[in-house]
Amino acid sequence: MTDWTDSLPDSARAFLENRRLDEVECIIADLPGIARGKAVPASKFARQEYFHLPDSIFFQTITGDWGEAADEDDGGFIERDMILRPDMSTATAAPWTGDWTLQVIHDAYDRKGKPVPYAPRNVLKRVVDLYRQQGWEPVVAPEMEFFLTARNLDPAKPIEPMMGRSGRPAAARQAYSMTAVDEFGPVIDDIYDFAEAQGFEIDGITQEGGAGQLEINLRHGDPVKLADEVFYFKRLIREAALRHDCFATFMAKPIENEPGSAMHIHHSIMDIETGRNIFSGPQGGETDAFFHFIGGLQTYTPAAIAVLAPYVNSYRRYVKEHAAPINLAWGRDNRTTGIRIPLSGPASRRVENRLAGMDCNPYLGIAASLACGYLGLMNEKWPSKPLKKDAYEGEADIPQVLGQALQVFEEATELHEILGEEFCRVYSIVKRTEYEEFLQVISPWEREHLLLNV
After folding, report:
1. Which end of the chain offers a freer environment for a tag, N or C, measured as fewer CB atoms within 10 Å?
2. In whole angstroms, what is the distance from residue 183 CA to residue 386 CA?
3. In this structure, is the dihedral angle defined by the CA atoms of residues 108, 111, 112 and 116, taken in order, positive or negative?
4. Over the chain, what HEC string results?
5. pTM of the full structure
6. What's residue 203's pLDDT?
7. 286 touches 155 (CB < 8 A)
8. Within 10 Å of residue 396's Cβ, how many Cβ atoms?
9. CB 170 within 8 A of CB 162
10. Residue 77 has what pLDDT?
11. How many CB atoms lie within 10 A of CB 429?
12. Cα-flanking dihedrals φ and ψ of residue 145, to 5°?
């Protein structure tokens, strides 16, 4: 191995042991969370300190169209090159490739060496730094829900569950069933194998309530590191599914009348000096900081929904009795609420945000959730009383469609200060462009019920 590979993480060095590295994928997440970048020969990567991509990758919609987000004061849409520098701590295997390939996440800088403000990883780093300036270390643990489905080659046809090893379609309403998990055994085996090759630790895989719906839990840790892992995991899981003639989808609501897929985010905050969880006092009781964090989620999450639920499909998930929240009530060990306090001891006391969909960009979803909690801490927001009953009996108090969510987001000046005003400007323009594209599409429902009846 060449000298530069000696500094790789242990898992990447183990992957390459006694093998010749062929290629390095230099990647960065765009606004939707798609990996963009270049694949270069290993010999070239060893010689390069950075590479270039145009900043316009952050102005692109999920359909490949362009939001007019270029800053006119800076020359308009001339596609300036960014400087992308590798974070070698993120180097990991791409074990599904035909040769020996590594992936490396890069950070985006402008020509003056400043972080590009609308690069999602930079947005999350910005929020984490605000916590650290207060002497706090945020800790998160994301949960990833997704569906394994039959191949869908015609967008006009509904998505269907995949065939299990029994030869029958995956069954719904089999939450936590080990038999249901066994139906997808070959796919799950590859997920475990790929994760091990990449050095990722899975805390568990369970069957969720939807047909072919699984959940993977990750161990708690640094927000940027965990966002990197979710970013990598989405690709890893898709590749494992394709090996077995099925699709993995992270759509918030891929199948009618089935639950949606969430990325629940567990939060705790450590005092950097003492190492103690600031949500718990010396005697183990709940602190003001604990309540202020919840109050922040209740106060500011409506403005952040456009980031936590970034597509028109995202809002189909917020449905009563389908394992998704419809409001911002909070409660202890209550899965009907948008904000849940899991059972735990004082040292591991944490707050779970259940609003984020699995379709959100993991960097941006975690950043937005942390930003809401941070504002609650700084502004000493107090939450409502904890809910001890079914939250579905209450009224919905979050935006119900993307257009409404974007309007609330665009007016949220305090949130803009935390996430970065330039990021919020670009994000809003790109999402507005996507929403306007969607409004031009006539759906099957409209043709079926309106064509001859109105």
Report:
1. C
2. 39
3. negative
4. CCHHHHHCCHHHHHHHCCCCCCEEEEEEECCCCCEEEEEEEHHHHHHCCCEEEEHHHHHECCCCCECCCCCHHHCCCCCCEEEEEECHHHCEECCCCCCCEEEEEEEEECCCCCECCCCHHHHHHHHHHHHHHCCEEEEEEEEEEEEEEECCCCCCCCCCECECCCCCECCCCCCCCHHHHHHCHHHHHHHHHHHHHHCCCEEEEEECCCCCEEEEEECCECHHHHHHHHHHHHHHHHHHHHCCCEEEECCCCCCCCCCCCECCEEEEEEECCCCCECCECCCCCECHHHHHHHHHHHHHHHHHHHHHCCCHHHHHCCCCCCCCCCCCCEEECCCCCCEEECCCCHHHCCEEECCCECCCCHHHHHHHHHHHHHHHHHHCCCCCCCCCCCHHHCCCCCCCCHHHHHHHHHCCHHHHHHHCHHHHHHHHHHHHHHHHHHHCCCCHHHHHHHCCCC
5. 0.94
6. 82
7. no
8. 14
9. yes
10. 57
11. 18
12. -105, 145
Report whether 118 contacts 57 (CB < 8 A): no
Task: Output the pLDDT for position 447.
Answer: 92
Phi/psi for 251 (5° steps) reads -55, 145
Residues 6+ apart with CB under 8 A from 337: 325, 327, 329, 330, 331, 354, 387, 391
Please answer whether residues 222 and 139 qualify as being in contact, where contact means their C-beta atoms are separated by less than 8 angstroms. Answer: yes
User: Quick one: tokens of 2?
Assistant: 């060449």
Q: Rounded to whole angstroms, how far apart are CA atoms 58 and 428?
A: 12
Q: How many residues does the chain have?
A: 454
CA distance 270 to 259: 34
Average pLDDT per block of 10 residues along the chain, 454 residues long: 74 89 96 95 91 93 82 63 96 93 96 96 98 98 93 86 68 61 83 94 80 88 97 96 93 91 97 97 96 98 98 93 86 94 94 97 98 98 93 88 97 98 96 94 92 93
- How far is the CA of 364 from the CAs of 26, 34, 141, 441, in angstroms? 20, 13, 15, 27
How far is it, in rounded angstroms, from Cα 103 to Cα 24? 6
C-alpha–C-alpha distance, residues 371 and 131, integer Å: 9
Residue 206: φ, ψ to 5°: -130, 155
CA angle centred on 225, ends 224 and 228, rounded to 5°: 85
Reported as half-sphere exposure (CB side, CA atoms, 13 A), residue 307 has a value of: 32
